[in-house]
Batch of 4 targets.
Target 1
Amino acid sequence: MKVLVTVKRVVDYNVNIRVLNDHSGVDLNNVKMSVNPFDEIAIEEAVRLKEAGKAEEVVVVSVGASNCQEQIRTALALGADRGILVETDVDVQPLAIAKVLKAVIDQEQPQLIITGKQAIDGDNSQTGQMLAALCGYAQATFASEVDLGDGVATVTREIDGGLETISVKLPAIITTDLRLNEPRYASLPNIMKAKKKPIDVTTPDALGVNVTPTVTTLKVEPPAARAAGIKVESVEQLVDKLKNEAKVIS
Amino acid sequence: MSILVVAEHDQQQVKVPTRVAVAAAQAIGGDINLLVAGEGCQAAAEAGAQIPGVSKVLIADAAQYGHALAEEMAALVVSVASGYTHIIAATTTSSKNYMPRVAAMLDVAQISDIISVQSADTFQRPIYAGNAIATVQSADAVKVLTVRGTAFDPVAAEGGSAAIEAVGAADSVNLSEWLREDVVELERPELTAASIIISGGRGMQNGDNFKLLESVADKLGAAIGASRAAVDAGFVPNDMQVGQTGKIVAPDLYIAVGISGAIQHLAGMKDSKVIVAINKDEDAPIFQVADYGLVADLFKAVPEFDAML
């Protein structure tokens, strides 16, 4: 079967972001950009399916500016077979991304689509579920274990309070949680090989999708800072402060 | 304005986060209806009818809603959505599963995890793990929102007397099937509902050492949490994780033990009223958000703390 994986170019998770002084957004100049960590897990899962002989081809898709090719190359170096970039300079929102991906799925006809459960920039956690809705497919979100069967996938999901196991008919959309797998690092030979793998570039227009946002960001501000606290010298002093100053324990 | 709040419940009781969602609905203003979908959920609907501010409870009691499968829940919500200007749920793993599906079926955006209501179409929400707060305005005819459970004070559980109206089940979508659940029986308060939380990180060294925290938690009536590092190291199960991708908490007192304070962890707890950090590394970032920091070996400090309670 064919597996489609989505990747988003995001600010690296180690970067401490800075809000711009004019409150128009977050400073992205000279900031390290990476594959969204949950998408790395999605790539890893797809590549493992291929290595296990359960998938024939892994196609990786990104929606965004031309520099998203870097993240597609990373996915190719990790073992994906080919890439598709749907290029746009619009700040595409989850519903628009889902519509673009739906158009790609109509062409590619994968049996399984794996996306990250959320991107660590917008923290929306919407795209996979929206894509499932638009395609009329089943969804298995926040997956920590995936077992592919004949026409179905059995997926263990992380839910409040524990785990839940469901089976979904294929084609389906799976979104990855942290514990699904531990992504590998790309080896140098694979990075070199990835340079020769094909990336098709298309546009939302060519796919017939309108990506105009319906949600406008009016401003972006830093969160209210916490007032600096104090260091206590001993456990005794800590207990005293909690009882008599903060009054949070009795 | 006409607002539909989708309830989270256990067929018997409506869960606290739903009353937070009702509080957000009240901040928007307008007529508020509550949808209780489940299997054998009459008791939950009756509990929902007592929530002040709710004018009507819609109950959909059918086998396909017993486990809140996303495909079935979304089909139901969309089937009753007509006439509502806002569809709201508390941010939980359940609503995060079906609400974006609802939004896409209605061809509108979802605004996830709002922390404040500026007006009927303008909301604030955290981005970048809470390191920035975005104010966003939706031009969609229907606003689909999820509400952060710590952002509003929940409305009371009792005092209202809404009518209960049965709605028919939507056609079963039948794309997925619930097989089993492995939910930990809690002897302590739930993390998202606890007024005191004590959390352990990588510094705990192993799962056994969490017993040190259990003893303190029992005395304080606290819930026990963990950092991602502690979960990834296998010390404790994932449902204990506090952070950007785990639970978002804001208790009266949060005690971080052996947690360095990665931004992803801070994202999940920095709205706590009082934060205590116990860590032997005096440069640990957790001290930058702690009201009271104690630089000490946790294996000495925690038992001492325990003994003084």
Target 2
Amino acid sequence: MNDAPASQSPSRVLVIEDEPSIRVLLNRVLSGAGFAVEEASDGLEGLERLSRHEFDVVLLDVWMPHMNGLDVLTELHRRGSTQRVILMTADHAPETLLHAVREQASQYISKPFSSEELLATVQRVLACPAQPAIEVLSAKPDWVQLLVPCQREVVDRIQSFLMGLDSDLPHQVRESLGQAFHELLLNAIEWGGKFDPNVKVQVACLRTRRMVLYRIADPGAGFRFDSLKHAAVSNPEEDSIEHIKIREEKGMRPGGFGILMTRFLVDELLYNEKQNEVIFIKYLD
Amino acid sequence: MALTLQISSLRQVTVLVCQGIIVFGEEADSLRAQVKELLRQNEPSLPGPSVVPGLSLVLDLSLVLYMDSGGLGALVGLLTSIRAAGGDLKLAGLNERIERVLKTTHLNQVFQIYASVEEAVNAFHAGAAVQK
């Protein structure tokens, strides 16, 4: 995978990581994919390099000597920097993740990760035109509440952090929650917010001993299920893709499987009367 | 963009290897654009590599990490446009996650799915033999 065509200068990546073997490995994978890579062995050295050079993206470890990754994020935020930063850590403590969201990290990638995951994450972050600001309304590990702008790019970003909060859950439960969240947040941003970055969607994630609950409230007028002929959820049993013809006729993008998928992924799916707010629940016992 | 596409040919069948994620946005768009180009190359006036008239395409999904409803929609769009042009599409190498997504949306009944590229290519040839 190479994000930078031969005719353009390669994207510049700064790897801030104290473990030499990991640094070398990351450098090898990224250089092999055509990126121009520089390394820093702790937060202080990383900040110094960021003061002197411009980078398209920073890969930032959390726990390092001298200055840890969270302090680097805080310092960058304090400087008013819009630097794209991917946080990489094996530390799934909610406090760490929520600190990263508050300080506007671009993405979170959980160690250990494959080279494919790494490259896909870097490329997604680089493809994002400008990093939209996320407002943290509540950062309690069992009650996270965010206000997010209606931009496509925000979906992967929020998803990576919120799924990190559920890292103690079985893999399949996390996968289901992640996919359901992705689909419903994308629906809210696309249909409720019309991809307008000036309007916001409210996201809440509540965790109890026995369940995980997500609430997504968009600023749109809502919808009615009987007017969703362009969605797979309205298809007759004998034709799983009937809605695709309707989408084509209406000039809509391919898709429409989101609500149908979500119904199978979660235990409860509830809409309010206007249907511009949705709650989904996954029970843990 | 987090999707890399690589085209090859195996026994007169076009194989498109997808690596990364197939989601709403640039990734789904690039997949659709690539197949549109393959369809153009397989128009009757241009001799193509197919074993049947139209495009014979295997989509190798073994390196796909994630697919959302936009990605699924793109796959369905590919299927309908390839079939409309007289060709066919088969999927190969689905991981457990993608397989589950296809099952929950009943698309496992719409697509022809094979464990490997080799099996999918064999199926094209078996189909061609039956047609003869």
Target 3
Amino acid sequence: MIDKTVASLAQALHDVQDGATVLVGGFGGAGQPVELLDALVEQGARELTIVANNAGNGETGLAGLLKAGRVRKLICSFPRAADGQVFEALYKAGKVELELVPQGNLAERIRAAGAGIGGFFTPTGYGTDLARGKETRRIDGRDYVLEYPIHADLALVRAERADRWGNLTFRKAARNFNPVMAMAARCTIAQARELVPLGSLDPETIVTPGIFVNRVVHVPATAK
Amino acid sequence: MSAKRLTRDQMAALVARDIPEGSYVNLGIGLPTLVANHLPQDREVFLHSENGILGMGPAPAAGEEDWDLVNAGKQPVTLLVGGAYFHHADSFAMMRGGHLDICVLGAFQVSATGDLANWHTGAPDAMPAVGGAMDLAIGAKRTFVMMEHTTKSGEHKIVDQCTYPLTGVACVKRIYTDLAVIDVTPEGLVAREWVEGLSFEELAALTGAPLRRS
């Protein structure tokens, strides 16, 4: 019997290596796997490259990982936030490297990794500072920039419901990067608000099929 | 100049006037967000949010906030009946793939050829952040800019060539300012309309690139 569920956050993260590249789902706080990130601080892996749309909020989750000094480099589209003081201080002190990527290129580079694409030509960023030094090509009269996939060792995602095969559904706009990232890592760990028996997710509405998911850990919703 | 500049809401109303029923529209953060308040209730327009929403509705009532349902500025919103959620790669395929009819963005500068600068002032101590600006600028069938005609200190924002870092090249189709509506055409900038009490010559003087009458 296949059962991808694991009993604890610590068990889910037990083999994360120093220097790993980690995809982190979420758009700001929505869909961010906060509990997995807090557990990654406990786990202790260092020198991480984090790929996420934003750079953390407040002091927990991604901001907590940054604050603990575990992140060497952040690949990100929008590191600014009203409560983004942790990253901003590290960045200004030169203690973390930032690779800024336009948001759609970020999503597509991750998608490309998951889909086995070796690179793609995108119009986004052409003629801007963020495309400086990159290969370009004119195709049918339009200018494009060559972008490469972002492969990762690990993806941390947040789902709404999961079953023991790792099939996932999401909730509202908390979906965002999570299904794309789930496809792009050697090991994908999903935290789910609800674990449901196999067969109780409608096959027509499963967003991430279990083939993209290696481990599932139950993290019930906490009262806000 | 005896002309009265438009308020931010009057500018938003002008943009809303020009969005036809059935349009798929992305409204950028800041000034463009106001446009939603001026779309008539009986005109069905599909608002897109980069984080995976079509059919985005207004802010919820106090106490009804759902933090799994936020807009591009991470503020709580609602979903209209018929709305849909999707993941980020699909959301940006909607932009880059030319499926959105109109996007409305704020700007620091727009050039005579429709280059847009709106993501970074270029100040060396400023932490850069781009988000979806570059995808939006080049993605929609028509990109509109909404901004004050000049800076607070009176410098041109419509210029021959942008001095701020570019967001996109030759992507702006129309500029709505607090003084005028200006089309970016292959033949240059063309003023479609301008506020009462302002002469065309005064408008042209406040514009940092050659301007023609429609």
Target 4
Amino acid sequence: MYMGGSSEQLSELPGIQKQLEVDMSRLSIITQNSAQRTVEELYKDLERRIVASPPGLCPVDMAASFLKMCHAQSCGKCVPCRVGLGQLEKLFDDVLDGDATLETIAVIERTARSIFYSADCAIGYEAAKMVLKGIRGFREDFEEHILRGRCSCNLNQPVPCVSQCPAGVDIPGYIALVREGRYADAVRLIRKDNPMPAVCGLICEHPCEVRCRRTMLDDPINIRGLKRFAVEQAGEVPVPKTAPATGKKVAVIGGGPGGISAAYYLALMGHKVTIYEKEKQLGGMLRYGIPSYRLSREVLDGEISRILSVGIDVVTGADVGEEPYLIQDIRPRYDAVYIAIGAHTDRKIGMEGEDAEGVMSAVEMLRSIGDGEMPDFKDRDIIVIGGGNVAMDVARSAVRLGAKRVRIAYRRRKVDMTALPEEVEGAIAEGCEVLDLHAPLSIEKDGQGKVSALWVQPQIIGKMKNGRPTPGDADVAKLRLPCDRILVAIGQGIDSRHFGESGIPITRGAAIDAFDWSGVKDAAGVFAGGDCVTGPATVIRAIAAGKVAAANIDEFLGYNHTITSGVEIPRVRLHDRPTCGRVNMKEREASVRVKDMELIECGMTSEEASQEARRCLRCDHFGFGVFKGGRVEKW
Amino acid sequence: MVNTERVKLTIDGIQIEADRRSTILQAAALAGIRIPTLCYLKGINEIGACRVCVVEVEGYAKLVTACNNRVKEGMMVHTNSPKARKTRRTNVQLILSQHNSNCAYCVRSGNCSLQSVANDLNIMDVPFVKELPKNCWNMEFPLIRDYTKCIKCMRCVQICDKIQSVNIWDVVNTGSRTTVDVSGNRKIEESDCAVCGQCITHCPVGALRERDDTEHVLDAIADKDKITVVQIAPAVRAAWGESIGLAPEFATVKRLASALRKMGFDYIFDTNFSVDLTIMEEGSEFLEKLKNRENETFPMFTSCCPGWVRFMKSQYPDMVDQLSTAKSPQQMFGAVAKTYYAKLLDVDPERIFCLSVMPCVAKKQECALPTMRDAGAGQDVDASLTTREIDRMIRMFHILPETLREEELDMPLGVGSGAGVIFGATGGVMEAALRSAYYLVTSKNPEPDAFRAVRGMDGWKEAEFNLAGTILKVAVASGLGNTRKLMKALRKGRVSYDFVEIMACPGGCAGGGGQPIHDGRELAGDRGQILYGLDKVSHIRFSHENPSVIKCYEDFLEKPLSHKAHELLHTDHHGWKMPGET
């Protein structure tokens, strides 16, 4: 570097002095200045903000904003990225401002393609890819802006948690009630949309938490934990009175969460409901699919008996399809029928040796546990095949049933498992070993036809497909994993044969073909919903389907009953909303809990629940919710 | 819950005791403190969107909107702390940056809440870039939205959803491009808008207005060949003085007649004349139906409100035949003016320019309907101006309203009964009709106030009367939200009536969408009282006693429901289509 003039004079300026010092050194330790530190923090803020993005935003506006950020990331060296991204931004603004023509879309597409082909680094070509994805994914929105000067999107889901809950439970309402210590009212309010608050307090997948606006500050509210707390504190809350008897009769086929929910609301509306259940007891997957260490039988039985107390008849051991319970016989005896048979059959893996003794499906195993028949796994060496929540359930149950070793073989990576991360961690903490990137090949039998090993092909993770990476065979030899039990947990199917034979329309996936309002095509008075229509989903989806069916069956029967809670929601308290971390649920120690089938999870303390309830931002009052769609008081 | 629980709090150093359910805004008002508001509309829009009513509450870093947050025991509120004032000011400046502040030529200049709030805050500049949307509106439609003036307060959305249940407006777009537009991505002319104009009268700024037809009218005055004939609707006389500073007792219809003559209109008549005619036709039609009870479908609905007719045609097309076939008074007047009156004047009806002054925006749409050209000389009513437009014309003609003298209306179409006057208030059509129906059945006049049970501001009223041995069940609804409730109950079979009066605007024409605007005040009740007062002192209390009506039948129309009456005074509601109507 040329150093002309008097360095003394220049170095009197502090900045120059620093530069000189840097120039003197060969290497220096890089430390973040405060601006960089702040930007790092802002990245985190933005990440959380994107997670909590409200549903129903304008895709063009969002894409334009992302593009602006991408452009800010450009180093400016190369033309396509430096200039092109900026020009795309202007073209997007033209679209949004109503200054564009349909030709503008073509210009955007052309430009983005050029940037994609010619940008030097990912900052440029990946930004262009996002634009191209947008043009493909929501071209109509571009056109709507250009032709009509507005967006076809609809911001009609103002309260994030409520809009994400399939049953539309009034979450801000019951959290406010928990905060005020009105636990029984909280339970009443939940029951308006979901008759199973105790069950859901323990095992709901809580989609409500996914877009919780509180995430913009720190973490989402622990909504499920608060629900559990409310139920535990409320004690026995009597069920509401039923409406005057209508004289109408409804049959519900299937006593799982969906069927029970539909029956509950229909009974409240004054209709006479009979549930036909194939198994010995009601509960469906809640009993025959979910182990008691996640959902205790006392809670489940309590919930079911409370619901039945509104006046519902139950016939158990009634397999509709077997005489004398054919749907043709049931239909004429009732004014309406709701089919909610769920998805209870096991899916075959289609692998050599699957018929070996000691191979058991998860469905089979959990079903017998549900009726109290515990398989003997004492000192067994077990391999579970699958990576979903059910795989974790059977693995962890196996640990509790005395297995000496439990391994979980999965063909993708651990992070790709569809099971909730806490379930995977829980299984590992309880001693299960995860063998990820192990694709099962075949089952080896010994001389007596018993399982002796699982052969697997190690995998290498590969390219992305629909946002998930696909595994492929790794260039290594297949492995033999000796074991004496194999539990297959690769999903469930729907047993709808008998319904198909009775003329109920069935889709190719064996699902019952029903409308989104749960009516079955060409079968007046026959309704269907839940897993048997959608394929295996969640408890709250089944409950929501039951609620929808109840409303439409009521309508079909010629009534317009409304379901309300009668609970007055506490007004908001003024609050500055200081940041505060989320109270997570605590679990019993792994070494202790594996010895029994009791609940793993501990409830919140009063102190924790009160703090957690205070974190709620009350989106029903603050934000769009106070204007439109914030609260549905009755349905 | 205890409703009377009181809390003590301090606002701007003043100790106040207030109901614990009251908002900070309400509590402050008790102490004589008026916190500025903009989007707030009591009971209808309490959404804290404009953030102008923000106040500082001790103990909280963030400011609090006074309009939708409740008081609390011991609360210390500062409505005017530097933080509150500066923030309020910034928020108003931000609103102004998205508002087309062409106040000099804005219809709401001088009656604009944004203008007053900005003036009061002494705002002299806006440090932000002006950002105005470029959306286009169909300027031919009787109701006009100016996107560049909309401040997104959402009042129109709420009025249309909550009060009128027509759901015409919705929020569209996101971010700073968010604005209010016709819902469901429709165009206004493709929508089922009733054109009631309630969104206009509840807009705090000039973003919504009626199509201004004054130039068209001025051209007619200036045209030497044209004979200009004006009809003044009942409800106009209860409101026209409001926005030009006249007291209700002073702002009589006779002074309005004087103002209109000063502008150069040739003949000033009263819609009350044709209201009486309407009663004769509609009343007779109803009595005919009653005679044929088994074969007719009841109830019969009134048809004088064009907003209601639009609502009926779009929401309940299968019930359109239950509307009375009688035209509205505006249209009966037009048809008579261009036939009977043209004959009296002995002029070519083409020379008559018929103007109506109405408390209504929907009347602009009604007079342009293809079915309203029965006199054979173009539109029967050539133009319809709102009360607001006529007030603007008074100012345009630099008439000093306080100097106006009372002048008689012209004859013979300037005579109306007291029954006609109350047409402008909810229940008035029913009452007027029953007064004459009673006479037509019994040949005796009832006590004039015998049917007063249908008066009052309730949105849905019911009454039963004994009409010479026949029990009549009637209902009256005003406001389309109330109307929808009534219609639902009717269709579900929960209620049944013989005769139903509907007016689209809450309180009837007195609260019409074309009436003067007073932000935050609902004047339909007060104006209705003025009309009932006029009826009380009127020397003709019955439509069938209107001498001009009697003469008109004798000399021209023969009798109610005559062939001629059918030709001129009745209409086919299927003769035109609402958007989407098949």
